[in-house]
Amino acid sequence: MSHDLSLAQSHAFQLARTLMVPVTLFQVDGEFGVLPSDELDDADVVIVHEYDPHQYGPAH
Which of 7, 9, 12, 46 registers the highest number of CB atoms within 10 A of its CB? Predict the structure, then answer.
């Protein structure tokens, strides 16, 4: 599962940098997903991390 999480984190970070909007990495039913943060609303998910392309620092 840690391999899946690191892969999801990498893709989420790259998506945030490509779209230049904050994205949220979340987990639901054992699977990971990524959405632009403003589209997530009040979904029943476990938020793993939010990536903001305007903040500098490590991706993980």
Answer: 12
Whole-model pTM? 0.82
Q: Could you report the per-residue pLDDT of 1-52, keeping only the tens digit for each?
A: 567 999 999 999 999 999 999 999 999 998 999 999 999 887 789 999 999 9
Calpha distance 46→58 (Å, rounded):
22
Evaluate whether 48 touches 55 at the Cβ level (below 8 Å). no
Q: What is the largest CA-CA distance in the chain?
A: 31
Q: Which of 42, 59, 19, 41 minimizes the C-alpha distance to 50?
A: 59
